[in-house]
Write a structure and sequence with these properties.
Mean pLDDT of chain A: 90
Distance between the termini of chain A: 56 Å
Structural class of chain B: mainly alpha
Largest sheet of chain B: 2 strands, antiparallel
Number of strands of chain A: 4
Chains: A mainly alpha, B mainly alpha, C alpha/beta
Largest sheet of chain A: 2 strands, antiparallel
CATH topology of chain B: ABC transporter involved in vitamin B12 uptake, BtuC
Number of helices of chain B: 13
CATH class of chain B: Mainly Alpha
Structural class of chain A: mainly alpha
Number of domains of chain B: 1
Radius of gyration of chain A: 19 Å
Order of helices and strands of chain A: HHHHEEEHHHHEHHH
Order of helices and strands of chain B: HHHHHHEHHHHEHHH
Distance between the termini of chain B: 19 Å
Strand order of the largest sheet of chain B: 1-2
Oligomer: heterotrimer
Chain lengths: 302, 331, 258
Amino acid sequence: MGSIFSPQQIVNGLQLGAIYALIALGYTMVYGIVRLINFAHGDFFMVGAYAAFGSFFMFNFLLPPGNGLAFIVLILAMAAGAAIAVITDYFAYKPLRYKPKLSSLVTAIGVSMLLEYAFSAIPVIGPSPRGFPEVLPKQMFHFAQVDISNYVIVDLAVAGVLMIGLTFLIQRTALGRAMRAVSQDKDAAKLMGINVDRIISLTFLIGGAFAGAAGLLAGLTYPRIQPYMGILPGLKAFIAAVLGGIGSIPGAVLGAFIMGIAETCATAYNSLLGEGIAFVILIVVLLLRPSGIFGEKTADKI
Amino acid sequence: MGTLKKMKLVLAALTFYAVVQVLNLAGILNGYFMVIINRSLIAVIFAVSLNLINGITGQFSLGHMGFAAVGAYVSGTLTTLFFHLNLNHPFDNLGFLAAILLGGLMASLAGFLIGFPSLRLKGDYLAIVTLGFGEIIRTILNNISYVGGPRGLLGIPKFSNFTVIFLFALATIVLIRNLVQSSIGRSMLSIRENELASELVGVDTTRYKVLGFVVGAFFAGIGGGLLAHLLQIAHPTQYGFYASALILIMVYVGGIGSLTGSIIAAFSLTFLTEGLRVGIDWLRDTVGVPIGTEWTMVIYAVLLILIMLFKTEGLMGMREAKILIIKEKEG
Amino acid sequence: MTALLSIQNLTHCFGGLKAVSEFSYEVPEGVIYGLIGPNGSGKTTCFNLITGIYTPTAGKILFNGEEINGLKPFRIVHKGIARTFQNLRIFNNLTVIDNIRVARHFTMKSGIFQTFLRLPSFREEEAKVREEALGLISLMNLSHRATELAKNLPYGELRRLEIARALATKPKLILLDEPAAGMNPKETEDLMKLILRVRDEFKVTIFLIEHHMKFVTGICERVKVIDFGTTIAEGRPEDVVKEPKVLEAYLGRKAVVC
């Protein structure tokens, strides 16, 4: 293995970071628009993983494992993540939109518990972990003393394509402009004729779809899924978003890659440190620069 | 007459104690029921102390059971690993009390450490930091082999009994009530109501926010110590996020800011948990429905969401039962 | 005689914007002084600087000859400056009497253990504060509301409650931020009488922000007019309102609005 910061650890960290980045984007977009830490977001990721698991067995009869099947599974995982996110927003968060912020936060904790325990309680899913199938046959490359599997490339490529698409949507389209407007000032956006509720739903839809994609990638890379798998990655992705500056899209991506690399390197040093590094980062960020790397400080009107 | 009125709460509590004891001795309440009552009383300690932080001071802790873990492990280590206290030794009971109090003190130190840096944070960020704190505690406990690591701290002597737990629960209620209905308590409430205005009528908001955490953590630590000496085990998973969330549910179902609500919710939800467990076992073993204990938590999650959506202020709102209100002289 | 409040070259920037620029003012003891100016001219920012909500970019604030800029807001309150807010900041879910009692808290000595055990010294102190609070409530004509939750009070009573709460800190100086906002002429008149009474009975100095010209000319001894953070006029209210610069600042704005 060599030193803690060996190229191998960096590659592993980037791979983990790509998954965190997809989850962190959902957190940061939702926070940017409705100022809610969506506790259930990590569970959307879990739903995506199970959807990928299920759709693999549904379509494996027609197609052998490979790019074609992986693409179908990816689309279905994203659809499932998007669906659960939009449904959650509609039933649990929307009615509380104009109530104190903490009510939505507590509701989000409730939704998170509901998804996790409902998935464990449903007999066909159950609480015990399941092995994730090889949707894509695994191949290993050896490159300058670093082992790279095709999964590394797939993880980074899927995350990269989705992020570029998102950047294009936000920066170059009318819809993206509307999203930016809503995140700046909901009331003003409404007066400008923007359908705020639809923009919020759309934000949940995109965030959920990204979490769903991350669910597939995580299942592929660390082939074990279970109903509680979303808690820790969700928390770490959230911390990554805080590190980057919550509400900032480039911040979430940068924060996620830092988090991924920090975690793999810390784990290589000591497993306890690996488990705790995320929280150490969180506390350091909040003490030194609570607004994160790209965050802006906002003043309260007095 | 006046003193009798003042003692109403204590009288009610003693009546409760006497009734339970008599029913127990008469064999009507069996050991199983006593366990549920004991757990309810410990839940009261957790819920009332969390309410001080979340409801009264208006902060947000998601790691309350982290404080309980500190109390449980500190007191458990002292009684079990350090001093090998023995139930049959009369003086060892005093040692147990000292260990419980020390556990509470260490928990309040943790409360100070977590409360202090958190001051710059508001609501949702604070939730994440306290959640992170709980997870750090759990991770550390999982990795200290001296206290059993992931197996947990085993063989803790069963010092907790109904009388001890009852007295601590009563003390928690009375002391926190005295605090809330005092000048210090009003300062805490004013932070919840409007932090800036509170600062501008001279309240050192930093100090009272930390005080909320310190006092809340102290009682949570006491509760943790009692729980460990009741179940005779302290295990990292008992103090994880979902354990904390369960206490949070009690506080919100009862009514954020209402001690009465927390007490009622702690009792009803502890009994509900047991009832659901019995019902689920019956469905599975007798009727043959393939159903697991996870449904209990599904029901809790739904209950929490419904309360938040349709009765955000909880059962009691911010009201208190008359018996918990200290009467002031008519002016 | 030195002024009770002496503001020297106070400047405050938000980002690149100068909200207050080179603001100086001397407020002697026992007076009622006013600060006026169009919307967004920096009046409330001045109050926020004096009360420690913002730390000034440059300049000094002396209270009783002592420098107070940079102190935390609650410490400034302890020194003897209290204030009210333009948009009320009442403790809605506390009763009227509790709203006032909170403001007496910092003078109380009972610690956490006296409180936990309700020792006699604690009870004595609580009883004393309760009496004081009831006194203030009756002075403000709020006795019928003493044990009601503040959120159930009508607007005019909330304004009075906020003044009572500020007085409860036993200040030497009270800053009133638009006390007559949202009041009808009758209420405004009563408020003027109340402020004069407060000044005389509590021996406090009053420094207020107001839009209502009749109100300002009615009770302020001197006023200062600011616009875009800079002083444009100063003097007796009836003289100041005639100054062309002041008319321009107000009417110029109005012309745009109308």
